[in-house]
Design brief:
It is a single chain. With 377 residues, the chain is α+β, with helices and mostly antiparallel strands. It contains 5 helices and 11 strands; from the N terminus they run H-E-E-E-E-E-E-E-E-E-E-E-H-H-H-H. The strands form 2 sheets. Strands 1, 2, 3, 5, 6, 8 and 9 form a 7-stranded mixed β-sheet that branches. The protein has a 4-stranded antiparallel β-sheet with strand order 4-7-11-10, with no helix packed on it. The N terminus is likely disordered.
Length: 377
Amino acid sequence: MNIKTPGMEISFVLVLVTTGLDLLEASNRTQLFKNIINRMDPDIAPFESATTGTYVSITLNIMGISDINEKQQTISGTYWVIIGWGDLRMRWDPLMYGNITSVQVKANKIWTPTSICIFNEIGNDKCINAKENQVTVYHMGHVSYVTYMDSVSQCRIDVSTYPYDSQLCSLYFGNVNPNTEFIWFNGQFSDFRLDYLQPNEVWDLKNHTIEFVDFYDPLSQATQKQVHFHVLMERKSFYVVISTILPVIILSILNLFCFVVPIDSGEKMGFAMAIFLTFAVFLTIINDSMPKSSEIVPYFTIYLISQVVISGLVIVLEAFVLLIHFHFSTNTQEQDEDEKQPKRFKITGALLDIVFFFLVLFGNVFSLLYYFLNVTN
């Protein structure tokens, strides 16, 4: 015996209603594609001339800055790019198609802009092309394309104030065919966002701006609008300070103690040589972490070179101190028997140690102040 409950009947009715609604919506979507989408010719643009051009908006969303290469003068980043444009030929009334306000369409079924490119991109994919991807078409005649992009673009890198340097890099979006593809950039709906930004272990993103500029193209001999997305990156300097700058300052201080070691101990020259060799080995170690640039020499590199020169000079000065000390020590027993003759001033090794101490101290302080004054301006 089959017993039917009111709950089972209600569930069956809901299934039938839901299925009917799905079939009705599918029918509406089918009619929409037949009447609107499938009639579109992907080769025909929604403009006839420059007077009927199409406005295009660009929204750039940074996901992360992966690398700034000082040697190649490039910046590598990952972005979400949203391209939007108008095509009034694909408008429809949602009430006629079951309140459908947007549909997903393959890009090869409709016209899409293919001449929007990144002018300072050095990779292979310079232009934004939907190809076989999906685009979203809205009932008011607006089309939106969302894509993921890895970009390696040119950027002027100035490392003169390393490790306290800041770099301003940009992406230049523009139309490479302004005489045939009549595309204008819409500043009202374009944007530059940081919704998905992941922090970088070396760089901090301090500022981001969007700018619309007039660019003169010498090939087409025409002035067109470009969209420039600017990012201001600041290097995180704490690690460099504690791992590189601080050890160099400590070694420069140790150079001064070469003149404090007693002359007769026999350790002055060995102490000076040990510090000089430490400088040489340390510079070899930090060479890989230093920015590579042939056009701009960082002030920190100049400071390192000055410390190596001073360390080498300390060895020469200590050799001179030892020469003077032991030369005069052999003649200490030779005294002038004529007490009436005034005693002549004699240069001793201890006196030279004092003079050279302050000379090297001045060199260390001057080089350090020169470095910090230049990188903090």
